Amino acid sequence: MAIDLSPQLAKKLYGGNGGSYHAWSPSELPMLREGNIGASKLALQKNGFALPRYSDSSKVAYVLQGTGVVGIVLPESEEKVVAIKKGDALALPFGVVTWWYNKEDTELVVLFLGDTSKAHKAGEFTDFYLTGSNGIFTGFSTEFVGRAWDLKENEVKTLVGNQSAKGIVKLEGNITIPEPKPDHRDGMALNCLEAALDVDIKDGGRVVVLNTKNLPLVGEVGLGADLVRLDGGAMCSPGFSCDSALQVTYIVRGSGRVQVVGVDGKRVLETTVKAGNLFIVPRFYVVSKIADPEGLEWFSIISTPNPIFTHLAGSFSVWKALSPTVLQAAFNVDSGVEQLFRSKRTADAIFFPPPK
Description:
Blueprint lengths: L10 E6 L2 E5 L7 H5 L1 E8 L3 E8 L2 E8 L1 E7 L5 E7 L2 E5 L4 E6 L5 E8 L11 E3 L12 H8 L3 H9 L6 E3 L18 E3 L7 E3 L3 E6 L7 H4 L2 E7 L4 E7 L5 E15 L5 E8 L3 E4 L4 E17 L6 E3 L6 H4 L2 H8 L3 H9 L7 E2 L4
Antiparallel strand pairs: 1-2, 2-3, 3-10, 4-9, 4-11, 4-12, 5-8, 5-10, 6-7, 6-9, 8-13, 14-15, 15-16, 16-21, 17-21, 17-22, 17-23, 18-19, 18-20, 18-21
Helix pairs in contact: 2-3, 6-7
């Protein structure tokens, strides 16, 4: 049976006046399970605080909107308190504990994409909360908590019972969250909207690629990632991952048309994508996108830290490498048609501006 590749929106799992948590379900987007990929979003309102947690999956986080603060504790390390803003990407390896806070009026929205191959459930993140109504303290008996932290019974009951919320709270009163430290940001976050461009095509598009050079923790996560901004009417050349990597794409802004072609030359997806959609391109399938007039922006992870892509148009396409007579035989055309085909798209580009 063919797998449904239709783009999907996230569903709310829980939340309150402090914010909400949303995720994509493998039951609605089967490629999540097939590809062992998880996807979720955290949205925090003013004074919203996401309680400390760790996950069963390594992830890449991308700030879609707003500004805020994240606390990060890597195994056997001190807490890093990092200021984050729209466009920031962070790599979160296994074992990292994080908390998130928003003190501004604008909602803080963070996207998480990651590898669930070692998770409890394929295609889903499972978070383990340190505190709250479903925190780890609630599962241990008073005796165990008391002996582990040398607390009296009444002290244990206060410590464990006072936080009745699940996952996200709204901070009230005089609680002051630690201020971010500029040096803590080094090596922890990269702003994709300000970073040096890896690809820049006039009237076409721009790409920033996350790698071990500009964000070293990417190597520990085991995923590649990029931010692509396609200008209005421009096209992203048909291409595929030639190293068996899956590509998971979240539409950040705008809208556009997408076509995916798979086995036996069958078009397996033709749709219009818009902001908030998530879709997955299977291994070796060919994908191409054309932006609507307002442009199209997407953030992707690729299931390998150093992905290799082959594009089928432009000066470096496979067509340019093949011999003229091979092309004639392959397409069953004469030399005139072959030369016409070869003469097109001679520029070194993966993005093509709209026709004039």
